[in-house]
Queue: 2 jobs
Job 1
Amino acid sequence: MEIWNKAALLKLLWAIAFKRDKLWVKWVHAYYIKRASYDTVRVSTQWSWILRKIIDTREWLQNIGGWQVLSTGNKFSIRKTYKLLRGEFDRVQWRRLICNNEAAPKSKFILWLGLQNRLATTDRLSLWGVNCSTTCSLCRREDESVYHLFFLCNYANDVWQGLCHSLRFARISSNLHDIIEVAKRQARKKNGKLFVMAVTECFYAIWRQRNSQIFANTVLPNSTVIRDVLFRIAVRSPEEIR
Ligand SMILES: [Zn+2]
């Protein structure tokens, strides 16, 4: 967000430099820049906060190579500017599971946390020194971790299997890496969207049941959870589930 904001500010500096026909640009030139130029004018503390911020971006401009690398034809490109300011990074493996995913935003958020092992599962809570039972609240057989809770746990397994059966998917892998690989392969296929939504909503549904067991001491039967997941998919993407 910060980098995107910088790129947007540079677009305003571009307007001051090249869009002399705009009324606000004429006003800035008439009352502030006057006979100087945007890149040499002395910034005064009397100026408004936003104008000072816009003029200050000229330092970034020099660092990233000037206007010629930020424009396409005669148009300023926020996209190019953003990429230059941000630098190049490798694409994250899980992007197919999060980008263009039409599941509910809160479901996507829980999946995103889970993919990075950032959910407050009891194995992590105990590492932080929280006094809690580390046993999985749904099966009470093994210690709770993201891997156990969503894939190895009997409860989760029954939900996944029931859901795959209802949607006619092959049995889902209990390895997160495999699921990411399937999502990558399925991304451009007809039922890829449905697969990604199902994984996301199922993840969220299991997390909710885990919380319900811990905080309210109740857990829904897996058949009800599967129905709920199918309903959540159907509401957001009715044509996919027909
Ligand atoms: Zn369990």
Job 2
Amino acid sequence: MSGSTDQAPVQVVIWTAKERASTLHEALKALGWHYPFAQSQVNNEGEIGFPCLQTEPFSTEELRVLKLKAVEPFTFNLQPIEITGHSVNPHDQLKRSVEAWCAHTVTSDHRQTLLELPTKWERLGDLVILPEEAFHSAQWNEVLSHVEEAEKTNLWQAVAQSLGGARLARQAQILDNITRSPQLRLLHGDSAWVEFSDYGVQFGFDAEQVMFSSGNVTERHRIGSIDMSGEIIVDAYAGTGYYTLPMLVRSNAAHVHACEVNPASIAGLRWGASANDVEQKLTIHQGNNQDTLPSLKGLADRCHLGLLPSSQAVWAHSLACLKPTGGMLHIHMNVEKEHIEQWRMDTIATLEMMAQEAGRPWNITSIHLERVKSFSPGVVHVVLDVLCRVRA
Ligand SMILES: C[S@@+](CC[C@H](N)C(=O)[O-])C[C@H]1O[C@@H](n2cnc3c(N)ncnc32)[C@H](O)[C@@H]1O
């Protein structure tokens, strides 16, 4: 077996001026990125460097998250770091656990090829969700096909524990149906019901039955940071409350009308409303929003349209839901990177035309375009904030 776990690991080190060091340190700990038991460092300019768990340069998404935490200015590089105690880096833990399992369970012929380990995973509460390809190579499939169930259980349990969880699941392709049901397979544990708190908001749902995108965390926090005091909101694609709950709990919305077709998502939404004590401020409209939105005409200050690749199917309905004096739309869309500005202009023109046809000759302006994340090569998930106002 390789002895690389004893060498100094090469990690991202993030640097900032001494005065900003404690802010950055707190932010890294809050994000769970801080590498425990690693020495902070000082460079020739007197800047302080904090080792992080990341082993590749920060992604655009990670840089955006850091920016939101107001920790700028900073720089980062990749370098060997000094460990002062026992390493709890989950990558190391995972490698050690799998090596130990292999040594015990797998013949030496197979061991060399087995250390093909996942480098990314997601954690919802104590459920660790591995990517689709994890432990799924031809070699892994071959080995696992010859292993007793009890040994497999030992492996999945060790993997879950190494990554800070108690249960383990593997993601599969999200089904392209109306409810975007995930094909998630539980590898270890009795149920896929998860409960967790993010940004002060409690979420709960059955991860085998609903889709939840952790990649949209910055957008969820952005929406939860807007002051919506006293506002009536329509959430056209409420899901488990990914945006509905932050709007109620953090943005102080007076009431949210949540449209949702998937009963499993509604079960999560109800659980979240109760856990966050906002049941009195939530009305759930179960069914296809093409049928439910027309009953919400003229009552909203704001409509949230969170469906990908496009929410255009409800643009006209949502304009009709706004109060006669107008309001705000948050429009989600997947757009090709080089056509974002054209899409923004086309969207405003389309909304103006739809409003005009509905007898609402409003002034419609885009006030912000948020680039949420890269969805696929060349395609960006964006959210356009659109203000609709009666012409003076
Ligand atoms: C992208 S997901 C939103 C997920 C949600 N933001 C969350 O994480 O819980 C879209 C949601 O819209 C729901 N949905 C899709 N089409 C719908 C429709 N026509 N009417 C009502 N709900 C719909 C799906 O069931 C799903 O929960």
